[in-house]
Amino acid sequence: MKISFLAPHLKVSGGVRIILEYASRLAYAGHDVTVCVRSANPIRRTVANLFGLGYPKWVANFGARVLRVADFTAEHIPASDVLVATTYQTALAIAEYPKEKGRQCYLLQHDEGLYHGDRALSDRAYRLPQEKIVVATWLKELLKDKYGQEAVLLLNPVDRELFRPVPRDLRDGVRILILDHTYDWKGTKEGVAIVAELKKKYPEIRLVGFGARKPQSEHRYDEYHYNLPQEKLAWLYSNCDIFLCPSWDEGFGLPSIEAMACKVAVATYDNGGSRDFAFHEKTALVAPRRDTKRLAVELERLVRDPALRERIAEGGYKHVLTMPTWEEQTKQLEKILVGEKQ
């Protein structure tokens, strides 16, 4: 089967990880898979396509082909059995393609009208008669309740070989890990402030930041890990006691389940995506969306109570082991793309 994914970019991010992993794994399953990405510079685009440059090196053993295109108009996209849009922009683009370009699917990983773009255009994309695949239950419910659209639920898996408990070698105080991000809705600023306030009462706390970007200057970390290789992330998670997720809204929330897979206790907002794996008092401690006081209370419980930390970490880890694997979800996606009824 010939499959073309239309991706927003190839940079490190959770949503792009999902796109690239599926593309790569489908290629290894024997399909002819192309990931199409925009490249404005015609010289760089031509050279990259001619010599096979610019592949996502951060995805181990990436198996699919990458095609740099000037834009997502039909003339630049190869004819395929299936076209997979991954943003509302690409969903709108393929809606204009002739039928011979391929059957249309839309892999939807967030409510893109919230923060990522034009609300009216995303609404229009969600109503298109394309087969929709969503990564979280709340997105399936959103499409049904607000847009009258059915969607196939394909929960995001976590790579259990990449994310697993590893021996700890850093033991300085209670280590709280947080993702540093420039988007306001990721909640980095609030999360850092919560930890700073807790430090007054628990000076042994160490705030550990990480991210694909250099840390924001206003965020004061005791330690920061910039753009770690993917194979080092399990070490980072495993060397922390708590993962704090202050994100207001998540399509799914990969870092939280990555932390769980490394047997780290999670404190999080109810941010939508967390509902598929963060169950209060069982697999995580959960505060209502954007209730900073409650999130601070839940975080403090984990800081002061080692037994609770261990119980929540163990509960999260055991739950991750029950979740679908990459192999299982790739087979499910393959069935969807072939057109089998779900």
From TrEMBL:
Q: Name one GO molecular function term.
A: glycosyltransferase activity
Keyword entries, A-Z: Glycosyltransferase, Transferase
Entries under InterPro entries matching the protein: Glyco_trans_1
Q: Which domain of life is it from?
A: Bacteria
Show the Pfam families listed in the entry. Answer: Glycos_transf_1 (PF00534)
Q: Which residues form the Glycosyl transferase family domain?
A: 176-318
User: Hey, which family's this protein in?
Assistant: Belongs to the glycosyltransferase group 1 family. Glycosyltransferase 4 subfamily.
Name the PANTHER family on file: COLANIC ACID BIOSYNTHESIS GLYCOSYLTRANSFERASE WCAL-RELATED, GLYCOSYLTRANSFERASE
What's the protein here called? Glycosyl transferase family 1 domain-containing protein
